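hi support,

uploading two proteins for the ticket. first:
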Amino acid sequence: MAENKDQEVELIDEDEVITLYDDENNPVDFYEVACVEYQGEFYALMQPVEPMEGLDEDEALIFKVREQDEDTDAFEPVTDESILEAVFNEYLNAVADAECDCGCEHDHCCCDDDHCDCEHDHCDCEHDHKD
């Protein structure tokens, strides 16, 4: 899939809690991990504050975010596997870019190559960083 450079990812460092409601109208608190713009739509990667059945501690849920009114956003669970994969890949690329400070001009970095000394292991380009 081609990557659109107009898409943006905002990594969230704050521990702001967003309360959503389940099918039985019970409140469920989430941390927003990132906001991803993909194909003109906005998506939120959210991790539950408390452990959630069927979800590992390091897993997140992806919600489509749309403006409900001027002050309120609505969060809709994403079920389309292709959108889930694309949004998550955009998030992973943003995390890799944020963690890499080796000066690579690629959208990712080669840090698992033996010739690279930037000590990251998240990328796979063939750029020689020791020049």
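and the second one:
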Amino acid sequence: MGLLDGKIALVFGVANKNSIGWGIAKALQREGATIVLSYAMDRLEKRVRPLGESIGCELMLQADVSSGDELDAVFAAVEEQYGKLDVLVHSIAFADRESLGGRFVELSRAGLLAAIDISAVSLIELSRRAEPLMKDGGSIMSLTYNASRQVIPNYNAMAIAKAALEAITMYLAADLGQSKIRVNAISAGAIKTLSAGGIAGFRDLLKYAEVTSPMNELVSQDDVGDLALFLASDLSRRITGEVIYVDAGHNIMGYTDVEALARQLD
């Protein structure tokens, strides 16, 4: 028996095989969950469909999370096919290139609001639609990053969006607890994904994260997937409203030996 036998999991935000959402989908399916995938735009279908087919997905649905009609269609399809939902994964992040770099004080209002809407407010939209389908309770999780709490060069609009996402996580957890729905956020360490490629200097950030974390290791899709599996399962039945780190301990480090770091980076 798997930890998630009989569970239905809806995963938003898979773009390709390197997506964190795909790592989560694989982990949940491995333990018995039936997976539904939702991708952001038509051009991603050719990447996502073969992935879904490899784990037996019956539903793979396109949805722009800024469109209420498209979101309604996704959740209606899940209800029609399965009659319920047990796990919701929000692995969605977007900021335009101009909002990821340059001086923070020059960040445009439009760019910041778009990043917050797509990357954070969308969690409220998904959760509102998920609640009626989680008839026996459930687990909702999202993906955040430590740029919400510490300054990471060039993250700019995305950092503010992640801070909003973490606040939304707390408020949703408080509100949905009466429905026995848990809401948590996974704060993953730096991982090379399609969206991360838009961050200037990301390769340097990866190296820095590796050499300054207590374990001197980077985080993988599988590491995040295993934490998501825990949060999706009954093993986490009394955990809600939390931001849980999987980053080899990088977030705890407040001081780095500059000389030792320089030697490792050479």
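thanks. also noticed: Residues 109-130 form the longest helix (22 residues).
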